[in-house]
Design brief:
alpha/beta, 402 residues, eight-stranded parallel beta barrel
């Protein structure tokens, strides 16, 4: 049982509401449900543990459900978006444009035009993007605000998904940034800051500590060529959550303590520069579950298969087809049998006509019946929106924030 949720009479509760009532409220299975109290608790922990003055942004790509984005808008310092659609969602919350950063290596002309018109900060990832943004600024008679996304000259060590360092499509190589800054000074734009995104889904605190220090040093060196300190430095995020057996939660206190050690010298070097952390999965991942219903039980060659009305078209990550090299089970449970002992080995599969549609392999669970509810934990990030919802034409899952 995850500490985020409770049970009563063997039935999982989310936000104080039991799973059967949630299914009735959704109108059908499958569905996602997110607990706003878990979101708020995570934010309180971050504010209490990280040094005072660290700004927290939400990376909307982790979960763009409008209710979640609007909820977080009143509690965070900004948003990071990766498309014009996400930008419009962020603007609709009332977040000020200068608190919204638009990143991504492949921004289309029309997306950049909309971003410049809206006044959000465009994260420049190439010289061509800078040139286009400058021309769009002239079209509207304004000086667009930009940040340079830096591809760092270091790579993360233990754990996590590398998003920078070495050859890649993201950002401008650190060695090329000085020349771009020289060109930028000749353009009719305003440099707001630097964005150093080194990696994601890291559970190893020493790796995050080292990456943050190196990012801060890199940004300080780059800022040395400027006439005045930049408005902000976005150090990316990288904070991960545990999904699989043997994984421990991130030691946030160790990260916060280390930040407290290097932050004063950074602030002396760049007075007035805000330090931003861009978090996605770490904010929302543990606040959500995916629920589907068992519609059939069958035995094949001596192995039991629980067939559900859900699957990879709703939750690609849980199927193992969203970044896993060797497939491992997300944490799963039978949400209406939590007080019963585990007594059977089984496979949980979805309803699609593909062998890739597997929710759990060789799971040890209570004896189940048709109609029972399968719950996939750690499903608040990269769930519905990261899945091929239209595949084979099955209905989409409902979503609720309670």
């Amino acid at each position: 049982m995850t500490p985020s949720f409770n049970a009563q009479a063997g039935v999982l509760q989310v936000g104080g509401v039991d799973l059967h009532r949630l299914a009735a409220r959704a109108g059908h299975t499958p569905f996602y449900v997110y607990d706003r109290s878990v979101l708020d608790a995570r934010l309180r922990t971050l504010r209490q543990t990280l040094p005072h003055g660290i700004e927290l942004h939400y990376s909307i790509k982790a979960n763009p459900m409008p209710a979640i984005v609007h909820h977080l808008a009143t509690r965070l310092d900004g948003f990071d978006v990766a498309s014009a659609s996400e930008m419009m969602l962020a603007l609709d919350t009332g977040m000020r444009p200068e608190r919204i950063g638009f990143a991504g290596p492949g921004k289309a002309h029309e997306e950049l035009r909309r971003a410049v018109a809206a006044g959000v900060i465009v994260h420049i990832e190439s010289a061509a993007q800078l040139d286009l943004v400058t021309k769009l600024g002239r079209e509207f008679g304004i000086r667009p605000s930009v940040a340079i996304r830096v591809n760092p000259d270091f790579q993360i060590g233990k754990g996590g998904l590398r998003m920078g360092g070495g050859a890649g499509p993201f950002g401008v190589d650190a060695s090329q940034v000085p020349a771009l800054l020289h060109e930028l000074a000749r353009q009719e734009v305003v440099l707001a800051g630097f964005h150093v995104f080194w990696g994601s889904q890291c559970l190893h605190a020493p790796t995050i500590v080292q990456a943050q220090r190196q990012s801060a040093d890199l940004a300080s060196w780059l800022a040395g060529a400027l006439e005045a300190p930049p408005a902000f430095i976005n150090l990316g995020g990288g904070f991960g959550i545990p999904y699989f057996p043997g994984e421990d939660p991130l030691d946030l206190e160790a990260v916060g303590e280390a930040m407290g050690n290097w932050l004063p010298s950074f602030q002396r070097r760049l007075p007035g520069t805000r330090v931003v952390l861009e978090l996605g999965r770490y904010l929302v991942g543990e606040a959500g579950i995916y629920v589907c219903r068992i519609v059939d039980r069958k035995v094949s060659c001596g192995e039991t298969f629980l067939v559900t009305d859900g699957g990879l078209h709703h939750h690609l990550a849980a199927s193992g087809n969203f970044g896993q090299v060797l497939r491992r089970n997300y944490p799963v449970m039978i949400g209406n049998r939590l007080d019963e002992p585990s007594q059977e080995r089984c496979h949980i599969v979805g309803c699609l006509c593909t062998p890739l549609d597997r929710i759990a392999d060789d799971a040890h669970l209570p004896a189940t019946s048709i109609g029972d509810l399968v719950v996939v934990l750690q499903s608040g990030a990269y769930g519905r929106s990261a899945s091929p919802v239209d595949f084979l034409g099955h209905p989409p899952p409902a979503e609720m924030l309670i």
